[in-house]
C-alpha cells in the first residue's frame, strides 16, 4: 500500500511538471491532489494493519488452546505402585531415547549401579550425561528399553514416590522466595534443630549465621540476593535434610570456592558411603575416588571402570583426563 500511495503521488507530480495530456495546474492544485491521495490511502492502510493484528491474535489463540488441550503437560504423580524400602539399585537395559523421536540422544545404553555404589558419567557436552539423570526421574519417557529401580520398572512406580527417593543438586538450584529454613526443609516436617544440623553438614552454617535473621532470612525470588555458591550450599543442605536413598550431583560444586568444596566433599563422602550416588562431572578431579566411571560418547557407553583402570587402558577417558590437566597447566 505504501508503494501504491507513493506511485500515485509521483504520477500526479510528473504529469503536472511535464504537462502530460495538456495538464497545466498551479502548485496549489497539485498540493490538494497529493493531500487527497494521502487521505485516500490512510484508512486502507489502517484496515490492513488491523487485519495483521487480528491474524497475530488468532495464531496466539490457537497456540494457547493447543497448550491447554495438551494432556502431556499434566503429570499424574500418583498413578502406579508405592515402592517401599528402596535400596537404590539402578539398572538401564538397552535404553534408547530421543527428545523429538528422530535424533537419538541415548543409543542402546545399559549399565547397573548397585546400592551404595558411587558412579560418575563423563563425556563431551551433548553426550547424554544429564539426559540419563532426567530419565531416572521420569522427566521424560524412553522410547525403547527399560529403567529399573530395585528391579521394578520405573514406569510402574508412582512419580511422586520415585522422585521422593531421589535428591538432585544442579549447577543453578532453584531458591524460593521464602525463608532459608523453608527452602531447606521444603514440605517436610522438621524441627529447627534438624534444619540447622542439615545446614551445618552442608558447611553452610557460617553463611546462614552471617545473615541478619539467620535461617529465618527471606530469600529473593530465585535466590537473586545470594551468590551461585551460596545457593548451591543451600541445595546441599536440602539433600542432607531429606536424606534420599539416591542423590545426583550435576557438577554441583562448580560455583563453590576451593576451601568450601573441600569441606563439603567430606560430607558428600559420608553420605555417598551409604547411598547410591551419581555424579555428572566436567572437572575430572572431583570424581577420581568414585567406584565406577561410565564414559559416554554420542549417546553410547564406550568405556567403564574406575579411575585407575581407565587411565591404564589409555582410551578416551585417559585422553580427557590428560587434556584436562594440560588445560590447567
Structural features:
2 domains; 18% strand; 11 helices; alpha/beta; elongated; 4-stranded antiparallel beta sheet; single chain; Rossmann fold
Major sheet:
6 strands, mixed
The CATH superfamily of the largest domain turns out to be P-loop containing nucleotide triphosphate hydrolases
Task: Count helical runs.
Answer: 11
Percent range for β-strand residues: 15-25%
Q: Spans with pLDDT under 50 lasting ≥5 residues?
A: none
Instruction: Look at the structure and give the CATH class of the largest domain.
Output: Alpha Beta
What's the pLDDT, averaged over the residues?
A: 84
What is the CA–CA distance across the termini? 65 Å
Please list the strands of the largest sheet in the order they lie side by side: 6-7-8-3-9-10
Number of strands: 10
How many distinct domains?
A: 2
* Helix/strand/pairing category: alpha/beta
Please name the CATH topology of the largest domain: Rossmann fold
Bulk shape: elongated
Gyration radius from CA atoms, angstroms: 31 Å
Element order: H for helix, E for strand: HHEEEHEEHEHHHHEHEEEHH
Query: How much helicity do the residues have?
Result: 40-55%
- CATH architectural label of the largest domain: 3-Layer(aba) Sandwich
